[in-house]
Design brief:
Length: about 375
Amino acid sequence: MQLKRLYSDNFRNLFREEIKLNPGVNIVLGKNAQGKTNFLEAIYVLASANSPRTNIEQEIVNWDNQYYFVKGEIQSLEDTFSISVGYSQGRKRIRLNENPLERVKDLLGRFMIIFFGPEDLQLIKGSPQVRRQFIDREMSLLYPLYYDNLQRFRSVLAQRNNLLKEIGEKKSDEGALEPWDEQLASLGAEIVSRRIRFLNELKERVSNRYGKISGENLPLEIGYEASLTLDQNSSSQDWKRGFIDAWKRRRKEEIIRGVTVIGPHRDDLSFRLGEKELRNYGSQGQQRTAVLALKTGELDLMKEKKGENPVLLLDDVFSELDGARQEALLKLIGEDLQSIITTTDNNLQEIKEPRYYFTVENGKFCRWEGRK
Ligand SMILES: Nc1ncnc2c1ncn2[C@@H]1O[C@H](COP(=O)(O)OP(=O)(O)O)[C@@H](O)[C@H]1O
Ligand SMILES: [Mg+2]
């Protein structure tokens, strides 16, 4: 898959920029705070109608204006299509080949990307929320229905939590919980079983990649740490029943705290190398390799599912990686895929030709021939 052209208008500091991209390697050079990440963010928005950095659309709108608009021309193995995402007056508008799409889910799964930035390197060490965000984002790109489910789960969860608070304040009674429990448990069960299935698909590919990058023989295991203790092979029905029972058991606590204490919004992922938990016992190098393996393993999975490579977006990650890990990434870039790589210094001489260089300064892009 390939992004041929990107037009962005009032997208943060990218003011009416039209950029034609190389089917192979694209290197975007720029000092800090010039617009490199904004550029990749705009591409991410084309793929998902959501930003990897914020949930507040208004943050993306250029400070001096009232709207943003991004449009991309994309080439897949099968055809060429355009996607545009715009936002103004509190409304997001998504178009596919100029035809409006009603919902975000109608867009997902078409333009496939892998985004890899410095924050991802915190994945293993960071909070459970970081890992949930990871799995939710990645799965949303692949499975539109998962995204849809997740949105509905979040909305029902917020309503159930409100109700718990009201019960605590004696404004409602416990009987009112039942229909909400039923709905939330169904949605939650679907999310958990999809996540477990996704991890099962991902595991072997990630472990393979880990072995290749590190040369270590230990298998890298990814585990799903559910807040509800249940056999991971359980059916969706079992998860649903399990949630309803668990909420009943912990009702008092839930009412006092005004939150739903068990569910996919409380789950986590674990990474183990052999017997050792990477979060606590892994070296920084091993943790980084694991993230790299995770991202590249995901690329393998996407490729298999879609029959072609996604576009690889690398946001300033080379400077964070050392020898073997840089090499592993370079090798990947050498494969038959389009990559868009941002960096503050031109230390990427080893990357194969053909490549395009861009410099970005204050949101202005300039195609640049040759090397430093
Ligand atoms: N909504 C916005 N409108 C205009 N400029 C913005 C907006 N949001 C961020 N910026 C500007 O974008 C720049 C940061 O861009 P970014 O792509 O993150 O930099 P980098 O090149 O370091 O990756 C900063 O100068 C910031 O002031
Ligand atoms: Mg940046």
